[in-house]
# Entry
Amino acid sequence: MVTAADYPFLNILWTMLVFTGLVMWFWLLIRVFADVFRRHDIGGWMKAAWCVLVIVLPLLGVLIYLIAHGQDMGRRDMEDAAMSRAQFDDYVRNVAASESPADEIAKARHLLDEGAITEAEFQTIKTKVVVG
# Structure
């Protein structure tokens, strides 16, 4: 009787499928562990319990976690992405809105002309702007 394992191509195909499945499994396992440890709504004992469950009964533990907290994982991912985007946007706005050294020296010159600062303070400001 001829079986599928007798054909080299099917062996290669089966090996590729098993390897892909293992990569997906480990990726899912890493995602579950990462989600457990980034959560702020559960304490250390609950995190330890989830870790023990996932380590002792890997398939069952991951499936239970995904069923119980799958939607929360997605929500936390979206919140993290939105927070990262907001931080990046704030950074870009701050960098784009920063004044050039010439503008800062001009402001210091204006303050000097008005008598708000002394010549020594003006020189200090100018040195700070030029150096750093």
Q: What stands out?
A: The chain has five helices and no strands. The CA atoms of residues 113 and 119 lie 10 Å apart. The chain has a mean pLDDT of 89.
